[in-house]
Structure formats: structure tokens, C-alpha cells
Amino acid sequence: MTPWNVALTVIAGVVAVAWMVPLWMALTTAMKGVPEYVRDATQWTLPRDPATVFANAGKAWETAGLGPGFAASLGYGVVGAALAILFGSLGAYALTHLQVRGRFPGRAGREERQENRFVVQFRLETYNTFNHAEFNSVNNTATFATAATAGSARPSQSDSTFGRMNGTLNPRYLQLALRVNF
Predict the structure, then answer these.
(1) 39, 70: one domain
(2) Are 35 and 9 in the same domain?
(3) Domain ends where: 52, 73, 97?
(4) Would you give the distance in Å from CA 91 to the centre of its chain?
(5) Concatenated DSSP letters for 21-69?
């Protein structure tokens, strides 16, 4: 390992220990009863009965009146998440299923000036952004066979492409550009 990697590993270890020590103290203190907490002068000892944490949580819940605040937070969290899912779903449906008419060109870009000597421009341009098919034209030329050639008393259509689309316009175009002026 390089000295740089060793230094990063040591720094990461120190940060991890500095983060874990308060967490360790909070957890072990919550697992101790009042007599055990008062009798032991150090925070580093392990609790004798870790199940004491449930009794301590119940006592804190009752004496501090955490019930209404917890219920309000739970309500805000559930309602907020439900609304986020609802509006996100509606937006996703609109983006994927609803058809938007038109070809919607779009452009986004950024310009940076470097020491008054260079101007760097980055651009993204789109045409037919939503990639909707737009048809060129309809084949409106009909050719009919005459009664003599077709062998019937009335004319019949002999062109099978009558009324069909001739093709579509260009699909979506995306263009990236980087321009440097100096």
C-alpha cells in the first residue's frame, strides 16, 4: 500500500471510532436502570440486563409525553409519503402514456468564460423531443381498371396503396455541441 492509502485508512478509522463512541454510550446508557447508572461511575461498563431498555423507553414515553408528538410525526410521514407516491405516479403516467402533439424543439446550454480569452459553450439541442410519429402525406392518387380490362361492369381500384401514409418525418434528433471561441 502506498503512504497515501495508509493515511486515508487511518483517517477513516479515526472518523469511524469518533462516530461510534457516542452511539455506543447512548445505547449502553439506555440499557441501564437508574441504580446501575448511578452506582457505576463509568459509562463504559456493559449493562447487566439489556432488556431494561424497554422499561426505560416506556417510562420516558409516559413522563415526557412523547405520544402526541410521535403520532403527529407518524401521521405527517405516512400522509407525506402517500402524497409523494400519488403525485409521482400521476406525473409518471402523464410522461409515459399521454400523447403530446407537436415536435417540441428544445435547447439547453452553458457558457463559460476563461480569463477573457476563451469562451466555451456547451449545448444540447433536440428536435421532436417526445419522438411522436408525424406522417408525411397520404397517397391520394387512385388508379382504376376499366370495365373492359377488369372484366366487370363497374370500375375497380387497382392501386393497393391508395389512402396509406407515404412515410414519416424525421425521428427525434439529439445534438451535443462544444464550441470554443478564442
Answers:
(1) yes
(2) yes
(3) 97
(4) 12
(5) HHHHHHHHHHTS-HHHHHH---S-SPPS-TTHHHHHHHHHHHHHTHHHH
> Looking at the structure, do residues 66 and 111 belong to the same domain, yes or no?
no
What average pLDDT values come out for the chain (182 residues) when binned by 10 residues? 90 95 88 79 78 87 85 94 94 72 66 78 80 75 61 56 76 83 82
DSSP per-residue codes, 59-98: HHHHHHTHHHHHHHHHHHHHHHHHHHHHHHHHHHHHHHHS
Whole-prediction pTM value?
0.35
- What's the total number of domains in the chain? 2
Specify whether the CB–CB gap between 153 and 162 falls below 8 A.
Answer: no
> What distance in Å separates the CA atoms of residue 83 and residue 32, rounded to the nearest whole number?
41
Query: What is the model's pLDDT at position 126?
Result: 81
In this structure, the answer to whether residues 118 and 45 fall within a common structural domain is: no
Shared domain check, 154 and 91: no
d(CA 94, CA 82): 18
pLDDT at 156: 55
pLDDT of residue 157: 55
DSSP 177: E
Domain of residue 164, residue span: 106-181
